[in-house]
Amino acid sequence: MFPRRLLHTLFVAALLSLPAAAPAQQLVNGYEPKWWKEAVVYQIYPRSFKDSNGDGIGDLPGITSKLDYLRKLGVNVIWLSPHFDSPNADNGYDIRDYRKVMKEFGTMADFDALLAGIKKRHMRLIIDLVVNHTSDENKWFVESRSSKTNPYRDFYIWRPGHTAADGTRTPPNNYPSYFSGSAWTLDPKTNEYYLHYFAVKQPDLNWENPKVREEVYSLMRFWLDKGVSGFRMDVIPLISKPTGMPDLTPEQLKSPPNAYANGPHLAEYLREMNREVLSKYDDMSVGEATGTTLAQTGSLVDDRRHELNMIFNFDAIKIGRSDFGPSQLGAWSLPELKAIYDAHATTLGKHDWDTVFLSNHDNPRIVSTFGDDSPAMRVSSAKLFETMILTLRGTPFLFEGDELGMTNYPFRKIEDYDDIAVKNAYKAEVESGKMSAAVFLAAQARVSRDNARTPMQWDSSPEAGFTTGNHPWLAVNPNYKQINAAEQESDPASVLNYTRALIRLRAHTQAFVYGDYEDLAPQDAHIYAYTRTLGDETYLVVENFSSSATSYTLPGGLKAGTLLLSDIPSSHEANTSTLNLSPWESRIYRQ
Ligand code: GLC
Ligand code: CA
Hints:
This protein is of the alpha/beta class. Helices cover 30% and strands 16% of the residues. Helix 14 (378-391) runs parallel beside helix 19 (495-507). The chain starts with a helix and ends with a strand.
């Protein structure tokens, strides 16, 4: 017999050691609810957002000064493109010191003030994790290249390459770089080649080395412990390299990203990262999934795998053009675009989560690429894409200036550009005589990443209110007097006010987050009509993808219900099956 006191003690001890009962997770339409599924994310390219000290370069205090603007827009997560110490070969995507703020952007105290300001307004911050490669000025690489026996040698990928009988050196394989030329550079100090999928100044880290992974996890903890809420992970499927790195076949050379991505150890690294870091915080992760097909998406984001929460799949944003090298904008049709979203809806299940986006700092402006940026159509077509992005399935990602309907810049000459991708491609294609300057420049003006990177247009004062100096690092779009935030603030029919209304609607309509999606007219060449349904609530979204007025009859005798929002303030058609839509008009109905 146990004495009573002992029994009591054993009983209490047993109670204490019971795991806290997990609250039964209430699924919504089969999905586990998460804050990042309900979020609207806004990407800031810090160089271009707001300059606080007149040096022509956007900075962290500049962003802090605009937090009320973002709060009022209604977004709740900010993704900040890299803010780390960098020599800026690729505007911060080449990191010299992961624990320091880029001096042009400010100080760590400025970062802390920004984060505090974001939290005070009940928003969250995610930062850019660029760990496929570093800058060649990162101390790891400085050490690594110094000798073959340096302890950091294996932090990067070094190979002797080939030496011909006459002593000529050639790279270890035929890998091309995303930024033109070979992905290998011979380093004279140790006479070996290092791998760089991107610029010569962006050597790839060797993830097979556990010390590299430990360093990455440690820097992730550093920022999470400061209070950031997660990461956008730059080119994350590239971290595991193909086994043995053989030459790409002629077939693979048509799309190198597919050959480079999703190497044999990717899942293992991501699970380790999740176990060691991500699972310990209330964070979100979104991977930039270059080279990843829709069919491969589940293997990165299925929540039973414990890898990433979401990825960016490029099928929609790159429709009609390639994801590699100097691309051209090819033809695409609305049925093709819809087929992409339809395929996402059927391929990704309740354990996966999607993203919706048509813009970021690597792509031209939405309205100029997918819509009609002529003065008569710009406002409506910009609103249509905001409608689409904020009502399709998946977490929406907006890029700075989308909410104003900012357009591409009228680039004319190579000197107008800043981007290393364009400059390298110009050397490789034009200076080598492969392509005429005229053809190259015409294509780049439509697709260049610099279209997205021109300064944010705040008001009609000189330099669009972006800087008080007169030398912005990249020219302001000359249309800033017509297109700017101040002007749109006071116009009830502006893209800005419409986007605010859309975000508000989404914020109190769970069907747009967790609801099922149905495309009502996949083959229609001009109309995108779909429903989002959650329980007994159905919403109908109808969008006219054309610069002419169109009359559209809903299929199967369906009638549009109550009009909740239209980009044309005078629209009033409701309770009818035939809709007369103005050019680029978009409407949302409750059924
Ligand atoms: C990603 C970034 C892009 C950068 C590249 C190399 O694609 O979004 O801006 O140039 O990675 O880091
Ligand atoms: Ca500045």
